Structure formats: structure tokens, C-alpha cells
Amino acid sequence: MSFSENSIQEVDKLLTEAFVLHKMGYVDSALKKCLKSIDQEKDNEEIVLLASELLAERNDPGAAYELLSSSRRRFPDCVEIDAMLGKVCIQLGRISEALMLFSTVLDKVPNHNQSVVSMAGILLGQSDFDSACETLDK
Predict the structure, then answer these.
(1) Over the Cα atoms of the chain, what is R_g?
(2) CA atoms within 13 Å, Cβ hemisphere of 43
(3) d(Cα 41, Cα 36) in Å, to the nearest integer?
(4) Which residues make Cβ contacts (< 8 Å) with residue 138, sequence separation at least 6?
(5) In 10 A of CB 129, how many CB atoms?
(6) Mean pLDDT of all residues in the chain?
(7) Could you identify which of 4, 10, 56, 135 might form a hypothetical disulfide with 120, taking C-beta atoms 3.0 to 4.6 angstroms apart as the criterion?
(8) Torsions phi, psi of 61, nearest 5?
(9) Sign of the alpha-carbon torsion through 69, 71, 75, 77
(10) C-alpha angle with apex 24: 5 to 12, nearest 5 degrees?
(11) With bands split at pLDDT 50, 70 and 90, how would you rate the model's confidence at 86?
(12) Residue 64's pLDDT band (boundaries 50, 70, 90)?
């Protein structure tokens, strides 16, 4: 997707507004801005990530899962979306899917700290100590 200079500025402005609203405690208003932008496809990876964080804050991991899953198709090279989707999968009890997502991230970015820690945590929870240590040692 190619953005014009005006579109990029519009997306940056919206992201800034949503971020400020979020920091001020207006989670619903920030989320509304993000989702409006996403619906109009005037968004980027950062808006999707912020919206998914806001959905998680509102204890709606199912909506975060749907948003991130559809965004993976639009932004296939964004490892942060895969990592966030992995975290949401943990919340939803989709542990096998979370492991696959963290593994995908680590194949692309071997030192992605969030994915290393999350994957090792899952493996420790499964009493797979050797694999957890191997993950942390990479």
C-alpha cells in the first residue's frame, strides 16, 4: 500500500492523538480513533499494535486476536504484529499457535526479546526445560 505525504501525516496525527488519549486514561476514545483509522485503511502497523494493546486493556483478547490476524495479511513483514498476536494467543489459551508465532518471529529476528521470553515462559510452563534453556541461549 502506498501512502501520499498527506496520508502519512494524517496517520501520524491520528496515532499521536490516540497515544495521548491513551496516556490520559481515555482508552475508549483512543481505541475508537484507532479502529476508525483501521476501518478506513488509513493506518499502519503502529496503529494496529496500539489498538490491540487497547483491546487487551479492555479485556477483549478475542477482538485483539481478530484485529491482529487480519492485520498479518496486510502487514506480512511486521514481526511486532506476530509477537503481539502470540501474546494474545496465550491469553486465549491458544498455546500451540503462540509457540508457532514466536518461532516465526525468532526465525526473522533471533534476538526479539519479547518473543524469546514469552516462548521460554510457555516451554517452562510445559516443563520442557531443555527447550526453554535452548530458547534463552540463542
Answers:
(1) 16
(2) 22
(3) 9
(4) 106, 110, 111, 116
(5) 11
(6) 90
(7) 135
(8) -65, -25
(9) negative
(10) 5
(11) very high
(12) very high
CB 48 within 8 A of CB 71: yes
pTM: 0.84
Around Cβ 126, how many Cβ atoms within 10 Å?
12
3-class secondary structure for the chain? CCCCHHHHHHHHHHHHHHHHHHHCCCHHHHHHHHHHHHHCCCCCHHHHHHHHHHHHHCCCHHHHHHHHHHHHHHCCCCHHHHHHHHHHHHHCCCHHHHHHHHHHHHHHCCCCHHHHHHHHHHHHHCCCHHHHHHHHHC
Q: What is the spatial distance between Cα 72 and Cα 65, in angstroms, rounded to a whole number?
A: 11
Amino acid letter for position 89: C
